[in-house]
Amino acid sequence: MVFRPHELHPTRSNRDLYGWEMRAHRKRAGDMSLDQLTNVLDGFSKSHLARVERAASMPCARLSQALDAAFGTDGTFGRLYELAKKEKFPGKYRRAMDLEGRASIIEEYTSATVPGLLQTPGLARRSLQTGHPHASAQEIDSMLSARLDRQKRLSSTPAPRCWFILDEAVLRRPVGGSAVMRAQLAALVDDRRSHVTLQVLPFGAGEHAEMGGSLTLYTVPGNPLIAWVEGSHSGVIIEDPEGVAARRESYDLLRAQALSPRDSSAMIRTLMEEC
Question: What domain of life (predicted)?
Answer without folding.
Answer: Bacteria
